[in-house]
Backbone:
């Protein structure tokens, strides 16, 4: 099963790369991006068991950070991990402040992060 | 002198914020459900007022109870049919459920009413009164008074009626309440419906102050969060204190930093309150 899934993903990757037009390529990128995003939520929501809504805020922060870095002349492949690191550093600070909250209170505090960013 | 005006603006907004948040606080406090539908309920109430005024010329102050009862029905059926089924599940479950229901309701409203911003423009306008150097727009003042009256009405209902006492009993101890003959499932539906009533009526009132659009629902939901956490969760007094605090915070940050900072600062304060004083300004939990 595992080898089959890996094989299917690799096959899909090369098929899209070789045969896919712009639309298929964009769609495939979004698939992969959302899958990674879901994995990111799984760490806090699934493994750690916190009802977290802050993932969208970190997603947005990473997007902005790497976009700003790229537009100020940094190569793309450096800007990507740096965007992730900036989001991670921010998440660490926020986590120190709100991870001791439980249940509903944590949910509200993490939702507040998203709203803070969305309205800035 | 400008501080007097800012203080007056903050207090006036605060009354409305209290009415927005008190239903949310009731549902959170009694049912332990974070009702993410609350913002959409408010907007739906505002649309009722808008169409009642546009089609029948009914003043929003008169259509407030109508909007309230429409939302009451929606709230009762939602809690009775759907939310009651998962009410004792972990937080994530009820949150995801109300989040999904909110997506449905909000997008249905987008479909039905479009995303255009609309506003009830009263004809003739109510005008303003001048107290020395302070200008008080009459529409805002009357909205504040009506909102506070509504909030007080809910308080009396919870204090004095059999229904209210049953709701408080569930909030204190679910099992004991059901042993005393309280129909827990029905009372939970009533609680949710009363929260929806407050949202609908408050939405109807605010239709003469704020522009209405389904896209705005998240703004009012956010205000309900901040009011509940700052004031103290699950009490009418907490909602009033938090509402006035948020009104003052918004007008003061508007004066000091500019209105675009009002929302980030109020949410930063929310997180600070959660970290330092999760019981809020009033510092006690629950209804007596």
Residues:
């Amino acid at each position: 099963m595992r080898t089959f899934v890996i094989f299917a993903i690799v096959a899909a990757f090369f098929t899209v790369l070789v045969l896919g037009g712009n639309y298929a390529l964009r769609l495939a990128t979004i698939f992969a991006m959302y899958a990674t995003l879901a994995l990111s939520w799984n760490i806090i929501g699934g493994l750690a068991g916190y009802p977290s809504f802050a993932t969208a805020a970190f997603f947005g922060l990473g997007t902005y950070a790497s976009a700003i870095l790229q537009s100020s002349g940094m190569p793309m492949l450096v800007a990507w991990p740096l965007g992730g690191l900036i989001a991670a550093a921010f998440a660490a600070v926020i986590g120190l402040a709100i991870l001791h909250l439980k249940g509903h209170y944590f949910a509200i505090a993490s939702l507040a992060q998203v709203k803070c960013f969305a309205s800035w | 002198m400008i501080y007097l005006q800012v203080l007056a603006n903050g207090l006036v907004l605060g009354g409305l914020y209290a009415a927005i948040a008190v239903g949310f606080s009731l549902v959170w406090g009694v049912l332990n459900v974070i009702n993410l539908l609350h913002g959409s309920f408010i907007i739906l109430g505002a649309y009722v007022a808008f169409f009642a005024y546009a089609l029948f010329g009914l003043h929003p102050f008169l259509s407030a109870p109508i909007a309230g009862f429409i939302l009451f029905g929606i709230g009762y059926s939602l809690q009775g049919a759907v939310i009651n089924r998962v009410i004792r599940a972990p937080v994530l479950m009820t949150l995801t459920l109300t989040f999904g229901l909110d997506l449905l309701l909000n997008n249905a409203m987008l479909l039905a009413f479009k995303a255009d911003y609309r506003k009830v423009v009263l004809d003739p306008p109510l005008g303003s009164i001048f107290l020395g150097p302070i200008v008080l727009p009459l529409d805002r003042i009357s909205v504040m008074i009506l909102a506070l009256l509504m909030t007080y009405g809910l308080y009396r209902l919870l204090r004095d009626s059999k229904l209210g006492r049953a709701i408080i009993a569930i909030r204190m101890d679910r099992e004991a309440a059901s042993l005393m003959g309280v129909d827990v499932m029905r009372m939970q539906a009533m609680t949710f419906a009363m929260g929806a009533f407050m949202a609908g009526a408050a939405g109807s009132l605010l239709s003469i102050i704020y522009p209405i659009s389904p896209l705005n629902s998240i703004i009012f939901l956010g205000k309900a969060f901040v009011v509940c956490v700052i004031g103290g969760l699950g009490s009418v007094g907490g909602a009033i204190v938090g509402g006035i605090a948020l009104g003052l915070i918004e007008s003061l940050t508007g004066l000091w930093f500019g209105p675009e900072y009002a929302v980030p600062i109020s949410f930063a304060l929310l997180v600070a309150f959660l970290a330092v004083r999760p019981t809020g300004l009033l510092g006690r939990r629950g209804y007596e």
Notes: Residues 2-276 of chain B form a domain with the ABC transporter involved in vitamin B12 uptake, BtuC fold (CATH 1.10.3470).
